[in-house]
Amino acid sequence: MKSCLVVDDSKVIRKVARHILETLNFSVDEAEDGRQALSRIETKMPDVVLLDWNMPVMSGMEFLRTLRQQDFDVQPKVVFCTTENDAAHIRAAIEAGADEYVMKPFDRETLESKLQIVGVA
Amino acid sequence: MEVSDVSSRILAGLLETRTGQQLTMSRRWRIETALGGLMRDRGITSMDQLITALVAGREPWLAGEVVDALLNNETFFFRDRAAFDLVLKGALPRLQRSREAEKKISIWCAGCSTGQEAYSLAMSFLDERVRWQGWKIDILATDVSRTAIERAREGVYSQLEVQRGLSVLQMMRWFTDEEGQQWRISKQLRDMVRFDVHNLTEAPPKGRFDVILCRNVLLYFSEATRTAVFQRLAEASAPDGYLMLGAGETIIGHGSDFVIDPDNRGLYIRNAVQQPAPLSGLA
């Protein structure tokens, strides 16, 4: 079973993402911001991180940059999942090391196809 | 808004006459949702009022709009990646060898809806432009819905549509973002695909197609119409052409014009031994 860490300050989005991911046979962990996500990763490395952009304490972008600087044996795939949906934001995310990008709102098929593209579903 | 049996039957008859598609009981639950927007736009307040207007026939455009609204235009880029891989990695390499002399490949996306599958193929060719240097790639995409074809030609997709099936890199490479969370496909891709309105129950478009995609359309036809459409597709296919159907659709039980490709299970190839039977029952 693959694992996914959902990082989003919205409880509703985490709940929706969890539901979709569990139907896709993922084990799901949650974090409310980037700092909490880094703590989660220290204890258990997920296969993929579903990452919001705007969050309190530590944004998705800060989290991603910090994550990619770490010397882990294996880095998780990172899929941004955000309402920042213009080309400039997407380009910045890719340059910072994101593997995929989902623009909210999204549906099950979209998320599934993105997870397939990064090779975890 | 209640849809009575009589209304359902009238709508089903209209759809089948215009497109060959059936409005089976399992699809009737959609009628209300499918027609809601059209009725609001046209100031029609009840199903009875709509049916009366259709039967009276005073507004000829109305029947066309109703049929368009009833069609299921669900599609997305690279729908069923595994199936696309069969075409890209199975059929096309073989065709590239057998068409080496003429350096031309013709593809027909039959029932293309709003164009995503046709554009997916075009993207695949452009992604491998070195390999296809000097080749003429002709992609024809047709659908019975004029509205869908107009949207396909325009090549503008919503945020939800553009990210269904495409990687972010493909999206950024082939689309530009516009106002209102819309994404416009590149001119280069639009120039690669010819779109046209066509009814699958009528004579096929001119040409001999090396690959025909007819996906998630045939399931809406009756058995008899489906068999006749397979004959139309065979008529349009090159003698060694390929046919790709939707997941869950099969040629089995509909004649021997195509057979399973043993090297690419999931694809069908034209059965060159079997010539198409004379058509009957269709215009």
Radius of gyration of chain B: 20 Å
Strand arrangement, major sheet of chain B: 6-2-1-7-8-10-9
End-to-end C-alpha gap of chain B: 36 Å
Domains of chain A, number: 1
**CATH C-level class of chain A:** Alpha Beta
Largest sheet, spatial ordering of strands of chain A: 2-1-3-4-5
Question: What's the CATH class label of the largest domain in chain B?
Answer: Alpha Beta
Strand content of chain A: 15-25%
CATH superfamily of the largest domain in chain B: Vaccinia Virus protein VP39
Radius of gyration of chain A: 13 Å
The largest sheet of chain A is:
5 strands, parallel
Number of helices, where a helix is a run of at least 4 consecutive DSSP H or I residues of chain A: 5
Shape of chain A: globular
Number of strands of chain B: 10
- Sequence of secondary-structure elements of chain B: HHHHHHEHEHEHHEEHEEHEEE
Query: What ranges of chain A have pLDDT less than 50 throughout 5 or more consecutive residues?
Result: none
Structure commentary:
- The complex is a heterodimer of chains A (121) and B (283).
- In chain A, α3 (60-69) links the parallel β3 (48-51) and β4 (77-82).
- In chain A, α2 packs parallel to α3 (60-69).
- Chain A has 5 helices and 5 strands; from the N terminus they run βαβαβαβαβα.
- Chain A starts with a strand and ends with a helix.
- The longest helix of chain A has 13 residues, at 11-23.
- Chain A has one domain (2-117): 3-Layer(aba) Sandwich (Rossmann fold).
- Chain A is an alpha/beta fold.
- In chain A, strands 2-1-3-4-5 form a 5-stranded parallel β-sheet, with helices on both faces.
- Chain B contains 12 helices and 10 strands.
- Chain B has 283 residues and is α/β, with parallel strands linked by helices.
- Chain B has helices at 5-19, 25-28, 31-41, 47-56, 60-70, 81-98, 116-127, 146-154, 159-162, 168-174, 187-190, 223-236; strands at residues 104-110, 136-143, 156-158, 175-178, 182-185, 193-197, 209-214, 237-245, 258-260, 267-270.
- Chain B is 42% helix and 19% strand.
- Chain B folds into 2 domains: 5-70, no CATH class; 81-270, Rossmann fold.
- The chains are: A alpha/beta (121), B alpha/beta (283).
- Chain A binds chain B through residues 85-87, 90-91, 94, 98, 100-103, 105-107, 109-110, 113-114, 116-117, and chain B through 76, 81, 159-160, 163-165, 167-169, 171-172, 176-177, 181.
